[in-house]
Amino acid sequence: MKIRSWRAVIDSGLVRLRPVLVTVLATVSGLIPLAIEGGPLWEPMCYVQIAGVLLATRVTLGIVPVVYVLCVENLKIIRWEPERHTVPENGHPTADRSGDCALAAAR
Q: pTM, whole model, 2 decimals?
């Protein structure tokens, strides 16, 4: 595995860590009072929502980046092509985005 792919995943995870944790903390702290004193209908639902938010956070920050790196580097499921820059007649360079990402199955 290339180090730069792992480094990019780690850097992006660190950038997204604070906003994700703030959102999770706000959601869970808002549901705790309702889970404690919400009555027979609300209590079980709040526990399920809290567990779901915590599980989704772990999946988002832990499992998805690892699966992405495995798909890009080891399994070659996703194939990245470098950008092709074209210079039209007016002289302003533009990037041709028609082939940035293509699935390997679409070859």
A: 0.63
